[in-house]
């Protein structure tokens, strides 16, 4: 689960001086029942995060759907009971978290199923193209994808801007010397650089912004050199739901897509107050 301390920052941002509407309109001590409902079909995520937020403010929570479950429009996800002010204080933050995470998990799940039907060995992965990494990375996992590296501290990924300063072979040598336990990945855009990276000892070669035809040609060149079995192949750049199946047909290991997190389509969830609890 995403740490509660991280989630509470959103509450602090949303109500830095309290929820003045609820505090002025709703008498202190009024208790209420409420439900969180799915307004569309998809994979629900962020349930545990929403639960933790409500429970932090002493709202009783009964979970009807769990993270990773398929839901239909109208399904009840959470049942709530507690101080009305507390429920309304948390409402928008909880819905925002669930909406974003469910949107990501739903899209990842759909892509995983499509790709698996063509090439079961290929993994769908996210990228670092987000400022909400704890939320987005967990959503990718719930959807059945690979989170990829969480931060710059997690894994070694040599990109074009590194290679603008240090030659490819030297960059890989330096990275490999750093630790015997770290995987070294190199991003390349040409067949020639893919061969250089593999020969230099890269563990993963990312083929960036290459067409399916260029990727197939590069993989064949790696195979001829006896290098394909020594490296994992990741493809990225320009891949969308419209063309992902063309990439899945290839002899690759990972497809990474930044759009999973930088172009999230929010999942529609809502909170409805059922009434007062006397």
Task: Give a quick set of tags describing it.
four-stranded antiparallel sheet, 278 residues, 11 helices, six-stranded parallel sheet, alpha/beta
Give a verbal description of the structure.
This protein is of the alpha/beta class and 278 residues long. The protein is built from eleven helices and twelve strands. A six-stranded parallel β-sheet has the order 6-11-10-9-8-7. Strand 8, helix 8 (191-200) and strand 9 form a beta-alpha-beta unit. Helix 4 (84-118) crosses helix 5 (133-142) and helix 7 packs parallel to helix 8. It starts with a helix and ends with a strand. The mean pLDDT is 96.
> Measured on Cα atoms, how large is the radius of gyration?
23 Å
Number of helices: 11
Report strand order across the widest sheet: 6-11-10-9-8-7
Describe the global form. elongated
User: In whole angstroms, how far apart are the ends?
Assistant: 34 Å
- Element string (H = helix, E = strand): HHEEHEEEHEHEHHEHEHEHEHE
DSSP E strands, number: 12
Low-confidence stretches: none
Assign the structural class, choosing from mainly alpha, mainly beta, alpha/beta, alpha+beta, or little secondary structure.
alpha/beta
Beta-strand share of residues: 15-25%
Mean pLDDT level? 96
Describe the main β-sheet briefly.
Answer: 6 strands, parallel
- Helicity, in percent? 40-55%
């Amino acid at each position: 689960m995403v740490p509660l301390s991280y989630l509470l920052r959103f509450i602090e941002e949303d109500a830095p001086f309290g929820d003045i509407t609820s505090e002025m309109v709703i008498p202190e001590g009024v208790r209420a029942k409420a439900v969180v409902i799915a307004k569309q079909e998809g994979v629900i995520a962020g349930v545990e995060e929403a639960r933790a937020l409500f429970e932090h403010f002493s709202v009783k929570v009964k979970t009807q759907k769990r993270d990773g479950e398929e839901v239909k429009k109208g399904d009840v996800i959470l049942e709530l009971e507690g101080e009305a002010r507390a429920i309304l204080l948390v409402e928008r933050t909880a819905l925002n978290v669930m909406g974003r995470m469910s949107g990501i998990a739903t899209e990842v799940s759909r892509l995983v199923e499509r790709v698996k039907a063509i090439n079961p060995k290929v993994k769908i992965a996210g990228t670092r193209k987000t400022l909400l990494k704890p939320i987005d990375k967990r959503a990718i996992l719930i959807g059945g994808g690979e989170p990829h590296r969480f931060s710059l501290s997690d894994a070694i990924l040599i990109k074009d801007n590194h290679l603008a300063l240090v030659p490819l072979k030297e960059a890989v040598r330096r990275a490999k010397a750093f630790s015997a336990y770290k995987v070294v990945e190199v991003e390349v855009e040409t067949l020639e650089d893919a061969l250089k990276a593999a020969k230099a000892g890269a563990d993963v070669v990312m083929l960036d912004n290459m067409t399916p035809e260029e990727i197939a040609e590069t993989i064949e060149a790696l195979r001829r050199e006896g290098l394909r079995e020594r490296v994992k192949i990741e493809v990225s750049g320009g891949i969308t739901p419209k063309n992902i199946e063309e990439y899945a047909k290839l002899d690759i290991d990972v497809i990474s897509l930044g759009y999973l997190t930088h172009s999230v389509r929010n999942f529609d969830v809502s909170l409805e107050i059922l009434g007062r609890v006397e």
